[in-house]
Specification:
about 550 residues, 9-stranded mixed beta sheet, 16 helices
Length: about 550
């Protein structure tokens, strides 16, 4: 694993056992000397060089072209004097430059940081400072984000921009990638990295405090593919994957990069804001076969103008993750496309999905069954296993688990437990068939009128009302310091009587659940705020 060194950096040691229960279950083996760039470059040795790797409005690449571009990136970064393990911050939209720069950095022995492109300058400063990154790669349109605020007290010295030149910024050295890369060789031998050496980082959203740098190792991508993609997606070289969630998001990273490249398939990259009309156009033009979304996205698509006129016949599979999928959204997508959404649950700490339904085995409302390669345990607050139909905190273990949060020993000790288990803090119930149902965060329980209530239970109830498009329910503090439930709701109709709608929804919850569980306050808005990964922005809701 990775352990703190005396100088405050981190040392690498061989700590992921090759005979772990999960690895044994899926027959996963990987050499000690391993570099994650093989996910891309092995396609050349397998005779897939001429096959399409990337398609989309931002350009196409064959596997041979993408490998050559990645090699130029790796050689270019080496020319800047970076040392093995140095971090490279990536502030990129979903264009061919992203996988090329990512794999080039990894192949050369550097550690990319995948950063949300909605990040403001002050938070960007934290990422740069926390990681000690000296080089950043950004789309030209985001170059101005590297201003005096972002660069203050950081080691950033070089900004490389793709898809054009950066505007005003405060970085000492600026490079425009397109002409610069042509000076470097299209051949690059992989660095002699160990399978348990750092490969890349992602950062947590920071919704409960300072974001945490989540470290992933060289073998993690291959493990998540062997566990999830081969058992659930079952991709073939003629598949085309289309992930609306972007690459900087762990879910999108697997969907757009790890899984299609591991199978020699193609990925459709769509830069810019993913509006329904743009998504519909991409589906009809590029004909993807596997579609990845989020519940909020499926809600938007099923309600959007032009949905009924779109040809979805190329799709064979649609997947969802990150939040609970409602019955209404599931049925709406099926009516629109003929496809049933396959729901799953994962996390950035595990890299991708570890609970999932299957195309031929699913339960609506369930996060799914245990994905082979991952151990799942539901435990009480004392760490003891609970039985079927009993609520417990979910613990997960698999060889793609992060070994630590960078420079956060407190949070590492809190989340990553003995034996490599991750304590997720999520409450679940497992039924007798092995399906897991999300019941909210362990710390979400609040007392209303002397009774304990989980806001998620009320949220799922409201979401099933036929007049509700989407909603969020959370705890709110009253002036007398007592707690109550507040709901923020988007109705299907644009015109309605708010007073009557409030009573209707409160009565609905009282009838479906217990009377004391109804939300005391309901606020109606036109659209729920979303994070950069497409989830409901619950921190923003607290300010409404």
């Amino acid at each position: 694993m990775i352990s703190p060194a005396r100088d405050g950096t981190h040392e690498i040691a061989d700590g992921v056992p090759s005979d772990s229960p999960g690895a044994k279950e899926i027959g996963f083996t990987i050499p000690q000397a391993y570099n994650a760039s093989r996910i891309l470059f092995d396609n050349l040795s397998q005779g897939r060089g001429d096959r399409p790797a990337l398609i989309g409005p931002a350009g196409t690449r064959s596997y041979a072209e993408l490998c050559a571009e990645a090699s130029r990136w790796g050689n270019g970064l080496l020319s800047l004097g970076l040392k093995r393990g140095d971090r490279v911050l990536m502030f990129l939209d979903d264009t061919p430059a992203y996988p090329a720069a990512f794999f080039g950095a990894v192949r050369a022995g550097f550690v990319p940081l995948l950063i949300n492109i909605l990040t403001p300058s002050d938070l960007l400063q934290f990422y740069l400072s926390d990681s000690s990154a000296s080089v950043a790669i950004a789309d030209a349109e985001f170059g101005s984000r590297f201003d005096a605020v972002a660069c203050k007290d950081t080691t950033l010295r070089t900004l490389i921009t793709v898809n054009g030149a950066a505007g005003d910024h405060a970085v000492p050295d600026a490079i425009i990638a397109e002409p610069w890369l042509q000076d470097f060789s299209a051949d690059l031998a992989q660095a002699d990295t160990h399978r348990n050496e750092m490969a890349f980082w992602m950062y947590s959203s920071g919704s409960t405090g300072r974001p945490k740098g989540i470290v992933h190792l060289q073998h993690d991508m291959a493990y998540s593919d062997a566990a999830f993609a081969r058992n659930v997606l079952k991709l073939k070289p003629d598949d085309i994957c289309f992930s609306v969630p972007k690459i900087f998001f762990a879910y999108g990273f697997g969907n757009s990069i790890t899984f299609p490249f591991s199978a020699g398939a193609a990925t459709l990259l769509l830069p810019g804001q993913p509006k329904p009309a743009t998504i519909f156009e991409a589906i009809e033009r590029f004909r993807p076969s596997v579609f990845f979304g989020l519940p909020t996205l499926y809600t938007s698509l099923t309600k959007a103008d032009g949905a009924a006129a779109t040809d979805f016949s190329s799709l064979r599979m649609a997947l969802s993750a990150a939040e609970v999928l409602s019955v209404d959204v599931f049925n709406g997508w099926k009516a629109l496309t003929g496809l049933e959404i396959v729901e799953g649950l994962g996390s950035t700490e595990v890299l991708h999905i570890y609970l999932s339904n299957r195309p031929d085995k699913k339960k609506l409302g369930a996060a799914g069954l245990r994905v082979p390669g991952y151990e799942i345990s539901l435990r009480d607050s004392d760490g003891h296993e609970v039985g079927d139909n009993e609520a417990g905190i979910l613990w997960v273990r698999g060889d793609s688990n992060t070994p630590l949060y960078w420079n956060r020993p407190d949070k590492t000790a809190e989340t990553i437990r003995d034996g490599g288990w991750i304590h997720t803090g999520d409450r679940f119930v497992r039924d007798c068939d092995g399906f897991h149902f999300f019941r909210g965060r362990a710390d979400d329980l609040i007392k209303i009128s002397g009774q304990w209530v989980y806001p998620l239970e009320v949220e799922l109830c409201l979401a099933e009302h036929p007049q509700v498009r989407e909603c969020a329910v959370f705890a709110a503090e009253l002036p007398d310091s007592l707690m109550t439930l507040k709901a923020v709701v988007v109705m299907n109709a644009r015109a309605f009587d708010a007073g009557k709608a409030t009573k209707m929804l409160q009565d609905y919850v009282k009838a479906k659940l217990l009377p004391y569980k109804y939300p005391r306050e309901i606020k109606f808005i036109d659209e729920l705020p979303k994070t950069g990964t497409g989830k409901i922005d619950r921190q923003a809701l607290l300010r409404i």
